[in-house]
TrEMBL record:
Keyword list, A-Z: DNA-binding
Source organism of the structure: Aurantiacibacter gangjinensis
Keyword DNA damage: no
Name used for this protein in its record: HTH cro/C1-type domain-containing protein
Any one of the GO CC terms: cytosol
Amino acid sequence: MATERNPLGEALRALRSRNGWSLADVARMTGISTSALSKAENGRLSLTYDKLAALATGLGVDIATFFEKPPVETRFSGRRSIDRGDATAGTIETSNYVYHYLNTEILNKKMVPLVVEHTARTREEFGDFVRHEGEEFLYVLEGRLQVLTELYEAATLDAGQSVYLDSDMGHAYLNVGDGTCRTLAVVSAPAETINEALEPRNPSFAPRSDAPERDPSEK
């Protein structure tokens, strides 16, 4: 059986090798523990969007670096990316979500598009509110989504409905339907590149003790 690719681990290992960085060096630059970095590099730990952004920011690379090889440079300035939904390199599973990053070959994007499957069903299961710089938009593709924020009453959205919010306001998303809940999400930031705007608010990154190992503060 073929070994499943680990694009994040491959990219992180290549960056460390190219720059002569140890895991301890990367930990100092990103605020992520050496243990967590080692697990991520070896495919034993999933990273949420927030953690990937923190990793990209600390290392000074674009977040798309962790999914695809950079495109060949051309003399043309216009960019285009077609995603036919058949790639698995941009899929990351966490305790509250399954992220499907779209059009990952475009670097230095000012917005990050994703299809998100929401798996948390209770506030207790989701954990603490998530907050990060920028803005985000979610359009419900399937199921029922409950939007929780620290400033507004809870709102429930059905397929075809959407929400737009400031990402630095604490927020959480719950699947409150009978089946799968999926959204199209676009995360944006008011900076030249998305990773410049996503400095981590909480650098702690300790995976849970129960399997599979994941960060307890995952979005």
